[in-house]
Structures are given as structure tokens and as C-alpha cells.
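Data follows
____________
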Amino acid sequence: MPRTMLKDEHWTRLDKTETIYKAYQRWFCSNKLMALFTLMIKDADLEWVFIDGTHIKAHQHSNGGNENLQSISKSVAGRATKIHLAVDAHGNPITFLLSDGTTHDVKVAPDLVDKVDLSNTEVLCADKGYDSGALRAHIEQAGTQDNIPRKRNTKSSNDHMDWDLYKARHLVENAFAKLKQYRAVATRFDKLKQSDENTVALACAYIWLKL
């Protein structure tokens, strides 16, 4: 319910020891929002899976503590974190990982792939930034085939590519665009990694809720 729709009778239900903030923190600590997202994706269409990553600027309010443990790193562009996302054949988010903003996508990709049940997946699609022999072997071991183009400086050809399916890779970009409509996702304000994970999970669940 939007805050502007709350009346006095709603606010009086919350005593001093049970504020909205404290309730939210309890949900974060128990990963309740992550569990909610997991329930929402049970009907995902996993015939095709698309993966990619995006940078998220870290606000100054997320300062403090060991930032490496909280998936925040500093580069020339400033402090940032990364969301690594997998979407189904309709572009709906099915899982994600957070990492610091300077780690290459291909290093996180195996862990992201392991979080998806690829037993019924025909193709996993990604851009040429994921061109890695180790990742291709990992995807094959998971029980599916990759649709990842090779870089220009490689001697191997792209005969394996389904270019029509590759054009549908915009689905994962569209998912990022939807997620970044939420201010708390477009800019990271959470200091703790667990809190930010639950924030992203809530936004992903809300995308599913609209279906």
C-alpha cells in the first residue's frame, strides 16, 4: 500500500518496538524477500536462458565496513557493485548474484549458471564478454549448450551460433531496465550485501507479480 494511502488507523497498528524499518530489517536478516522471489519463479519458462551483468553506483550512505565482503569496489568511475542476472525465455528474472563492480562477468558466470536448473534448457545465451572455454565446458556439464559468440581475435568460427536467438538477448537488457526503475536498485544505498540482495529480490518479485 502506498505511503500516501495509509491513514491514522494503519499507523496506530505499529507500536514503538515494531516500526516499519525494524520489520524490514527482520525480513532482510531472515532472507524473507529472497524466499518470496524463489516462490514467484516456480513457473518460469527455462527453454532459453539469458545472462548478463550491469553496474550499479554505490551511494555514499553505503560506506563503511569491509566493502570487499559487501560486494562493493572502487574504480576510476567511483564505488560500484554489479548485478549478474539470469532471465527466462520471456525475459523474467529467475536468479541473480551480486559482486563488486570491478570483477569481470565471466568470473561470476559459473556460480550464476549453477543457481539455475538447466535440465530442461535447450540454450544458454550470453554476449561475447562471456567467451571462455572454461565457461562453455561448465555450461555443457550443466546439461545444455551455449549460444555465446566468439571474439574476433580467436581462430575458431561462430558456426555454432543461432543468430536469430541471439537477437532475443535484449530480454535480459529489458529486465535490467525494469529493475532500474526502482531507485533502491538503480543506486545502491544498502551498506550490507544481504540487505541489497533482498532489495533486488523484492524488485524481481514485483516484476513477476505483474504477470
Observations:
- The mean pLDDT is 90.
- The chain has nine helices and seven strands.
